[in-house]
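Data card: per-record layout.
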Amino acid sequence: MGRSNSPVYLRVLEDLRMRIREGVLAPGARVPSRNAIIARYGVGETAAKHALQILATEGLIEARAGSGSYVRQAPASKYLDHDRLHFPGSPFGLDESAAPGDHAPWLAWEHQTEHIAPSPAIARRLGAGAAAVLVTATRYLLTADGAPVQLAISYEPAGLTEGTAVALPEQGPLAGRGVIERMRSIGIVVDQVVEELGVRQSLLAEAAALALPPGAPVIHVERVHLSAGEPVETADIVIPADRLRLRYRFAVPGRPA
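The structure for this 257-residue chain is written out next.
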């Protein structure tokens, strides 16, 4: 077998991560100390320290001053359902069902809209000419029982809706009704929605908004609404990866929805 070129800390990280996820190291269990890792895995201090730092960043362990690191009690996963295209800021809505004896979560949206010059990345997603105009940017934060569960920032070319009753997504007769219905009201038919999903480390501002440790993993959804092939809106939707799962439902063609 050829010699691996992977950093030595990965061997430690993968083994400890697997032991935590399989329950060998249960929630509340003490994680091997740096010295114990050095002895067990035959690695140096830097590799041991790096593996522990990554496990903490991923939210799998937590350090207790003067005591060491312990397996974190992960919050119970909840579902965000992908069946609400009219949900403000996102097609994902929190599953509001509750088990017997539990209460349904109290949901709240915070939102703020401003006109800004788009970043190069947003300009590319909105198509030719977007860099030369302002965009309507709306930031949404969804909370459940006061805890943040989803951050979304939606961008629309300001010129598309300027002077109409739906110029601001959260004001006017269609406030909060979503991109598709708002655009339809001014004669723009959205005929395609494209989403790209990935998992990455959270940015500092995202971590602060979602009450996560800096760098904690998040699900990132990059969304674009299109009309006849032309983008009319794009959004970045960020969801804590350790707390929530995305659930999709698809109708089977030829069968009742």
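Known properties of this structure: The CA atoms of residues 203 and 248 lie 26 Å apart. The chain has a mean pLDDT of 86.

See the next section for split statistics.
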